Amino acid sequence: MDGLVSKARFYGLFYFVLNGKGLNFFYFTLDEYIKTQSSSVVINAFAKNENVMKNILTLILACALSITAFSQKTTIIIVRHAEKDTAKGQGNDPALSAAGTMRAENLVTLLKDYKPDIIYSTNYIRTKSTVSPLAAKNNITVQLYDPANLPGFANDLKQQKGKTIIVCGHSNTNPQLANLLAGNSNFKQMDDNVYNRIFTITIENGIATAFEKDY
């Protein structure tokens, strides 16, 4: 009997209440219940319904995991590539200037409070070079995206729930991508000489919050 009591105490009792705020359940261990009941009554009840109790616990755990998954927060940080080398002979795909290389290195410190899961860049030297130090710091391989298909890319980003994602783009693509993720048109076109603007979008429970700041 003592073994059954110990086994029973592993489980709990659940009460379900449906009210204006939704379905809630309350839990307490069988210790408290055992104190108020005949031990033979408790043990017999538990022995007969052990499988039922296990099924209830499995259901509760599944519900809890589902709620946790549903409430996961996705954070997307959009940065522009750092300053590019404007010297003659660089062509249409210039590398970063000395100032741009320094900005790329400083990006690691700027985003130190974030642990990126994925880093995206367009397929240009200046964008890939901007996030290379951050990718190396976090041991992440930079993935490429097509700036000509921002709606499709935005949809892909929204599906990556619970992730922290860094995106490196351009002055004429970053505001548009931020607007697509936020579901509005609040962000305006950036001037070509602005390199220090970051867009941060968080998505939780299907609701997006977005803001921009200069650093």
Keywords summarizing the entry:
single chain, 215 residues, alpha/beta, Rossmann fold, 2 domains, six-stranded mixed β-sheet, 8 helices
Topology:
Elements: H1 2-8, E1 12-19, E2 22-29, H2 30-36, H3 39-48, H4 50-70, E3 73-80, H5 98-110, E4 118-121, H6 125-137, E5 143-144, H7 150-158, E6 164-169, H8 174-182, E7 197-204, E8 207-214
Parallel strand pairs: 3-6, 4-5, 4-6
Antiparallel strand pairs: 1-2, 3-7, 7-8
Oligomeric state of shown chains: single chain
Strand content: 15-25%
Strand order of the largest sheet: 5-4-6-3-7-8
The tally of structural domains comes to 2
Reading the helices and strands in chain order gives HEEHHHEHEHEHEHEE
Give the C-level CATH assignment of the largest domain: Alpha Beta
Q: How many distinct helices?
A: 8
Plain-language structure description:
By secondary structure, this protein is α/β, with parallel strands linked by helices. The protein has 2 domains: 2-70, no CATH class; 73-214, Phosphoglycerate mutase-like (Rossmann fold, 3-Layer(aba) Sandwich). It is 41% helix and 24% strand. It is built from 8 helices and 8 strands, in the order αββαααβαβαβαβαββ. The protein has a 6-stranded mixed beta sheet with strand order 5-4-6-3-7-8, sandwiched between helices. It has a two-stranded antiparallel ribbon with strand order 1-2. A hairpin with a 2-residue loop joins strand 1 (12-19) and strand 2. The chain starts with a helix and ends with a strand.
